[in-house]
Amino acid sequence: MTATKLELDIRRRGAMRGILTLGSLDPAFEGAEGVSGGSVVLDLRPVEFVEPAGLCGLAALLEFLISRSRLVGVRIPGHNVAAYLERMDFFRIFGHRVETNVDVAALEERRRGNPGTLQELINFHSEDEIPGIINRISEILENRGYLLRERAAICATLSEICANAVEHGHSPFGAYAAVQAYQHIVSGGRGKGEEVLVAIADGGVGVRETLSRNPQYAEFTETDNEALRHALKMGVTGTGEIGRGGGLAVVGQIAARAGGSLSLRSGSGRVTFYGDRTNSRNVPRFPGTFVRVSLPRKAPEEPAS
């Protein structure tokens, strides 16, 4: 039987050229809806660089495919991408569950230190696991010069998002998180500087259904995008994946003040908050809830000569 092939949408030019983002997985998520039994192959060979959102999105996609397919194959490009995936523990989590074209044993022979710039891809299922993840994120932010009050606000909200991602066992695979700090700005061409990217994904019921359970918010859940926009407002609470207090609004405002963004995706909706504006668009269905936070630090301007 011929395997179903899933493609990516990898940009060929511009600042995001060759980067695996959540958006570049859209054609694969769309194609995954039609998978039922048999074999499926995901071709990552156009990828040159993987960021945390792309890694968490890939994990969520593979969990979805593994539950619906007899065999899942992943075609991975040359050494650099394979080495990064090994460094981020991708093969530790998925190496025995999918078929790849990579000699993992050879990659594992490399020595690797802890550079203090990343939280490897981690699959978590209970609130007991969350403090370790949040402590690691706090360390990364501290290494990048974030003040204690900023770290406390960011980490408190991310802890809440992580807790909601695993609450009540809504997600069959729990949740995934990945974080990395870069010496350059990854999220498009916004000038020189550095950036911390945080991604959290779960396979739960999603934002729209969660908010619709609360009669106070039912009128704001006619579409996925409407529910997402409402979830980004201060104080909005649900009973599952969405924050129960300051919630997403707090970390969104912190990211916006830094010149970054917060992107929230669930169902067929995606909303990105930049502070002065909010962009919404319809996208292929995401099986759960996805949060991406961009925290850039611009390089200081050079004095005029």
UniProtKB/TrEMBL annotation:
Q: In terms of domain of life, where is this protein from?
A: Bacteria
Which parts of the sequence belong to the Histidine kinase/HSP90-like ATPase domain?
149-299
InterPro entries cross-referenced by the UniProt entry: HATPase_C_sf (IPR036890), HATPase_dom (IPR003594)
Tell me what this protein is called: Histidine kinase/HSP90-like ATPase domain-containing protein
